[in-house]
Amino acid sequence: MVGRMVGEAVGGIETRTVAAWAPLGAAFVRRSTRWLAFAWGVLLVGVDFLAVMKLTPFPRSLVGLVALFVGASFALRTPGGAEALGWRRLSATERRQWMRLIGAAAVITLVAIAALVAASRFTDVSLWHARDRSNPIKHAIFTTLWSPIHEEAIYRMSLLPAAVATIGRWPAVALGASVFAVLHALYGNVGPFNIFGSVVLPLVFVRTGSLALTVLLHGLGNAALILTNLAVLHLV
After folding, report:
1. Considering its fold, how many domains does the chain have in total?
2. What is the pLDDT of residues 127-157, one digit of tens each?
3. How far is CA 145 from CA 142, 160, 190, in A?
4. What domain range includes position 11?
5. What is the phi-psi region of residue 129: left when phi exceeds 0, alpha when psi lies from -120 to 50, beta otherwise?
6. What is the pLDDT of residue 30?
7. Quick check: helix, strand or coil at residue 10?
8. Cα–Cα nearest to 101, from 174, 195, 207
9. Residue 122 φ then ψ, to 5°
């Protein structure tokens, strides 16, 4: 049943993904503009890395806010700028297709949680501890709401459209996956969920041209990881 749901959802999405590639980064017409936008995205990624390592005099959240402000300014001032950065609404058909896929992913996640709870009876559950347990509610809100917006604004909206326009789609996807994996290595969190997300999120963004969708998927993925941690730590 789950396999059929995934197959139908992915199959339906595949029929229109090529069309989404065209507007992504299309507003960067001049070569100098493309490279300047690409350099800006790389700069934001680099500064975010430094902020994660606490090597900046300002909080990390400021990097995401700057990315959102610059992106909004570009979208408002440039014809086609919103679509170029992935600010587009999914059609009703696309929304239904993605809801099917998300539903299938939720079922798979529940099965994975049950398997991890069972496996944790024979392993060290300290491996699943979250980084910050001092305020679990604050940690959950930050991880499922602000963190997806912050990271998608930098690693998808700011980096990938210009990368697609400058170096091509698949090199851009590879770059996006690599820098996002490095980010989670800096977190000290290189588990399978994060490696999977590092590959899937840039691929989804490039194939659909929808930033809102990757923010939603990112938030749901983080929520699933929190639930997994809670299940392993408190249900064993």
Report:
1. 1
2. 444 444 556 667 777 888 899 999 999 999 9
3. 6, 21, 21
4. 2-234
5. beta
6. 79
7. helix
8. 207
9. -115, 5
